[in-house]
Structures are given as C-alpha cells and as structure tokens.
Amino acid sequence: MIRPGPAGKSPWLGFIRILAAALLLPVLLPAATPAPTRSLVVLGDSLSAGYGVDPAESWPSVLQGLIRSEGLPWTVVNAGVSGDTTAGGLRRLDWLLRRPVDALVVELGANDGLRGLSVESTRTNLQAVIDRTRVRWPAARIVRFVAMYPALASTNGVELIPFLLEGVAGIADLNQADQIHPNAEGHRRVATNVWKRVAPILREGSPGEATNGPPKAVLPRPVPAP
After folding, report:
1. Catalytic residue of the set 48, 181, 187, 206
2. Is position 46 annotated as part of the catalytic site?
3. Domains recognised in the chain with CATH numbers
4. 181 carries an active-site annotation
5. Given the residues 46, 48, 58, 206, the one annotated as active site
6. What is the model's pTM?
7. Contacts of 200 by beta carbon, 8 Å cutoff, 6+ apart
C-alpha cells in the first residue's frame, strides 16, 4: 500500500525526479571520443586489385582483417588497378591525396618492365610518388614493393623489404591458371608477407605510440603483374 508523502506530496514525486535525472545523464555527460582511424592506401596494379579473385579475398582485404584482429585503428583503402604502371599510379595520386593518407603502400613497377618502358621513367615516377605524398602529408609512411633502385631508397630514407610474392611465386597451387596472379590462398600468403613488414609501422603510428625520426619508405623487389 502506497502512503501519502509529507505535506500531501505525491509519493511518486521522488521517483519521477530520479527517473528524469537518469534519462538526462547521458545528455549531460560528454560522449566518449572514439579513437581516430588512420588510413593505409594501397596504390598498386592487378596484384593488389585482386585480379581473378573476389575483392574480399585480395591481400589488402585480408590485411585489413589482420589489422582488425590486433585492434589497430587503421583502415586499408585498396586503390589497386589492374594493368597500372608507375605513370598511371602517379596520375591517380593527386586524387588519392585529397583525403588524409597516414601510410601509402606503392606496389607498382612490374608492368613498366613488361611494356618496355624506360628504367629512367620508372625511377622518375617512383620518386615523384614519394615527393608528392610527403609534400601533401609529411608524416605519411611510404611502403614500396619494388627494390629496383637502391639509390632511391638511400636518398629518401627508404627501407627495403623482401619479395612481395615470397612463398607464392612459382607454386602452382597458390596461383591462378596464368601462374602470375595469386589465387585466394596465395593472397592470404601475400597478406601475411606484407603484415610481417608493415605491422611495426602501423603499431608505431597508432595513437598513443611514439613516432621517432622521419617517415620511412619500404621497398620490396619487383614481380611481373600484367
């Protein structure tokens, strides 16, 4: 039985006040600020675009899953285009740089050789990719998967990394019928290769982690990728 409150006040008045305060609490308290998400852009050719496999099976997509599994606040943007050259990647770069780029993976150069383009033009294009990225986003980490020019690495503070298709190239079961482009399992192997090299960069560049020294670019060896 509910009894009247003092001075004839409704017994529900106190309950209503408590309920109102509880409903207003989320409005009064500041909302938690989500951790900022950083972007890793992959500028590549058919190997990155996932030629012949489902987009979700491409190594950049698999890499995103590895990043997510570790809880790192990075989003992979796959800007791979089948058949692209260093010149084509350079032409697309300004459009990609309109949005923040915290890390840029450049997987280009193999098609230059397949098309008989001059070595000098390829080197010039790669240098331009590095220069433009650093002008627009000075803190961006640049990761290269072509170790064609050791001098390019030394003059730009670039770190060379191994063969992109290590453990995949030349293995029939990991490639499609053309024996050039990886199949789904091959892409998973490639993603593992990439993850081993970029994970320290992503961890270092995550919020709360200290970053020492100028941005480094990472250059692996060329592979044929029509």
Report:
1. 181
2. yes
3. 38-219 (3.40.50.1110)
4. yes
5. 46
6. 0.77
7. none
